[in-house]
Amino acid sequence: MKIIFAGTPHFAAAALAALLDDGFEVVAVLTQPDRPAGRGMQLTASPVKQLALAHGLPVLQPLTLRQPEIQQQLAEFGADVMVVAAYGLILPQVVLDTPRLGCLNIHASLLPRWRGAAPIQRAMLAGDVETGVTIMQMDAGLDTGAMLLKKSCAIGERDTAEALHDKLAALGAEAIVEALCTLPRLSPQKQNDALATYAAKLSKAEASLDWTQDAALLARAIRAYNPVPVAHSPLNGAVIKLWRASVREGQGGEPGTVLAVEKGAIVVACGSGALALEELQRPNGKALPVAQFVQGFRVKPGDRFGAVA
Question: Do 299 and 235 form a contact (C-beta atoms < 8 A)?
Answer without folding.
Answer: yes
